[in-house]
């Protein structure tokens, strides 16, 4: 799973015993050489789908990490792209490794996604692989913050993978990981919030609607289909509605 240039087990242990923010600061230099980076196999079909909806003027990558999603936005936005993350270490790597060349202006902003410093300035927001860092009770605030950052009619897009069934080894691996993290966070401070099974589609759709979005989805057919014929992944596209959104409590 890890390359020779990736983090060692000792480094991963130190990171896992740190806070979420500090853990990613430590992991940042080796992050792109771990399986935690969203793979191009997911990024590419998302980019192609967004191209059919755009172009967009300004795009925001929420919890941008080292910038994989920003690269997607640079290809579908014409004027401005912003990556926001709470980890200074991840942003530093993103800024240093951003590909040169023409395209929209790229900015990097350090901020918590639960308190985004933007007000109605983006046409498109994306996020990749970050939702496990938010507890279910935090989703309404997160979605409300993204909605506030979008212009009326702006879109919030992110891929969702079909959950593995109990006949899959991955199902039990993710279940075991989440159980381990719950024990870790019960007995150790600071907490490191990362769970794989706290983002069910039904709850996500409910929270998006309550935050003031209408939601569509499109299959990411390049990622294949399950044995029952259902797509392995979909792109959720939430559109900011004109009606006022209910206030989210912190």
Automatic annotation (TrEMBL):
Pfam families named among the record's database cross-references: Methyltransf_25 (PF13649)
Record key words, sorted: Methyltransferase, Transferase
Family annotation (InterPro entries): Methyltransf_25, SAM-dependent_MTases_sf
Single Gene Ontology BP annotation: methylation
The organism's taxonomic lineage, starting at the top: Bacteria, Bacillati, Actinomycetota, Actinomycetes, Kitasatosporales
Full protein name: Class I SAM-dependent methyltransferase
GO MF annotation terms: methyltransferase activity
Organism: Streptomyces zhihengii
Gene3D superfamilies in alphabetical order: Vaccinia Virus protein VP39
Domain spans labelled Methyltransferase: 60-154
Highest rank taxon of the organism: Bacteria
């Amino acid at each position: 799973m890890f390359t020779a240039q990736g983090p060692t087990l000792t480094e991963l242990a130190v990171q896992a015993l740190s806070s979420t923010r500090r853990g990613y600061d430590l992991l940042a230099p080796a992050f792109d050489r771990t399986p935690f980076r969203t793979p191009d196999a997911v990024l590419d079909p998302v980019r192609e789908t967004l191209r059919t909806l755009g172009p967009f003027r300004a795009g925001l990558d929420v919890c941008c990490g080292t910038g994989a999603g920003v690269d997607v936005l640079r290809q579908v936005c014409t004027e401005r792209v912003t990556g926001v993350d709470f980890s200074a270490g991840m942003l530093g790597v993103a800024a240093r490794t951003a590909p040169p060349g023409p395209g929209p202006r790229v900015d990097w902003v350090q901020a918590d996604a639960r308190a985004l410093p933007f007000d109605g300035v983006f046409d498109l927001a994306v996020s990749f692989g970050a939702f496990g860092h938010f507890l279910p009770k935090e989703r309404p605030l997160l979605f409300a913050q993204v909605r506030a950052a979008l212009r009326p009619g702006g879109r919030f897009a992110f891929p969702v993978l079909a959950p593995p069934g109990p006949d899959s080894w991955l199902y039990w691996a993710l279940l075991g990981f989440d159980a381990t993290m719950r024990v870790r966070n019960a007995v150790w401070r600071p907490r490191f919030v990362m769970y794989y099974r706290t983002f069910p589609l039904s709850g996500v759709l409910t929270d998006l609607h309550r935050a003031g979005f209408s939601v569509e989805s499109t299959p990411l057919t390049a990622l294949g289909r399950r044995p029952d014929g259902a797509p392995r992944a979909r792109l959720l596209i939430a559109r900011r509605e004109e009606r006022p959104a209910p206030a989210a409590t912190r």
